Amino acid sequence: MCLPLFCIFLYLIEVIQASPTPNTTNTTTTNDSFKAPSFTTRTLWTIIFSSVLTLFACIYSAIHPNIPSPKNSSWYHILWRQLGIMTMALIAPELIVTWAMRQLLSAHQVTRHFFVLMGGFMLYVNEEPYRTLQPKHILKLIHDKCIKVPTLTANQIHDKSKGNAISKGLVVLQVAWFVMQLITRAIYHLETTQLEVGTLAFAILNFLTYAVWWDKPLNVQCPHPVYWKSTESRPEDHIDDRDGFAQLRYLPRVFSPIIELIGWADIPTSRKLQVPTFDGSIELNVSDKTILQQAALIMAIIFGGIHCMAWFFTFPTYEEQVLWRISAVVTTCTPCLCLSAYLNSEIIYLVRRLPDSERHIIWGVYLMTCCALVTLYITARVVLLVLMFTTLRNLPPDAYKVVSWTSLVPHL
């Protein structure tokens, strides 16, 4: 189904590119009431600055990380974690949106608020942090009279957040301006750079991320303490502390975020002192899981499809154009193959009935296929990121033109 849609998409792009360019030398058209816009020029620095600023807003300001571990709350650990999430957002931004949507669905299913799911409540035993508490753990410990009922109002949670509607609104304003000025360039057939196309893909996903995480507290550093009061039992008598993530040691570490996010069957994620970044410990019902899978697939196709908009753009060399096209196709189609591999993973459970030798071979082929798809996708994303900047060295003259009134719209 993806291939016909992809072909239609490329055909529409070619039609748009081949359509006649309006004559901008005249100040009026045949209708005197409609005036052609005036154009000014922009510099290469302006192109880079506006794109990088928008890109930064998409991969940094839009991300709402979970609460860090009390033992890793120093600026060094927080910065290192933030850089890791930003790198993931550059390579697979659709994974960030899927993470946000999964948290929203989990919040509506169990607690109606993000704070608990992001590690907002920390159990302390003998004045030492013991582990983060899931909603089911809090209810069980309250029922067993092991802890007091945590009292934390919505205003107190909001006070912990480092973000507000104004700061979020400024980022949305910048992204909206960037999208608007690209639309005007398309209307008046002005050349658009590959850097702007790539940034547009991030901007489109950013809108959804902000909408989903609008009520999630931003950059909360300290969880709310919940103290153990029972003298007759220990927490391990009430909470299962087995680290199921140890079962994944045979898998490459690159799969960790994906496995945590989808909540692979029979493999719980470790929640000892902090909630994993891409947490999948809350089991979604069948309908929510289907919605999440379909939404993730659609977002991945959209993200890759936007890069295909530069299919007929001017490139400094033919080799760079071919590299861009191949990478854009890989970025668009690989998520479909990855989702198919995950949905077909249920077949893998049937091989448990086979002898050990045959089962190991099938598992090996399956894991090698997954590794190949992930490696292919990451390589394509890196190539696109590199080409976004290298193609700036030789831009056509129309790329430096800009519609005058777009500079009057408020933006950063």
Can you give a write-up of this model?
This protein has helices spanning 2-18, 44-61, 75-91, 93-110, 114-117, 135-143, 154-160, 165-187, 194-212, 256-262, 286-307, 318-343, 345-348, 356-390; strands spanning 39-41, 121-125, 128-132, 224-227, 401-403. By secondary structure, the chain is mostly helical. The strands form 2 sheets. Strands 3-2-4 form a 3-stranded mixed β-sheet, with no helix packed on it. It has a two-stranded antiparallel ribbon with strand order 1-5. The model is unreliable at 1-34, 243-252 and 263-270 (pLDDT under 50). The relative contact order is 0.15. The two termini are 41 Å apart.
Q: Layout of SSEs?
A:
Elements: H1 2-18, E1 39-41, H2 44-61, H3 75-91, H4 93-110, H5 114-117, E2 121-125, E3 128-132, H6 135-143, H7 154-160, H8 165-187, H9 194-212, E4 224-227, H10 256-262, H11 286-307, H12 318-343, H13 345-348, H14 356-390, E5 401-403
Radius of gyration of CA atoms, rounded to a whole number: 25 Å
Please report the number of helical segments.
Answer: 14
User: How many β-strands, per DSSP?
Assistant: 5
Strand content: under 5%
Apparent shape: globular
The percent range for helix content is 40-55%
User: Taking strands numbered 1, 2, ... along the chain, how are they ordered across the largest sheet?
Assistant: 3-2-4
Question: What is the residue-mean pLDDT, rounded to a whole number?
Answer: 76
Low-confidence stretches: 1-34, 243-252, 263-270
Based on secondary structure, the structural category is mainly alpha
Distance between the termini: 41 Å
The helix/strand series, from N terminus to C terminus, equals: HEHHHHEEHHHHEHHHHHE
- Main beta-sheet annotation: 3 strands, mixed
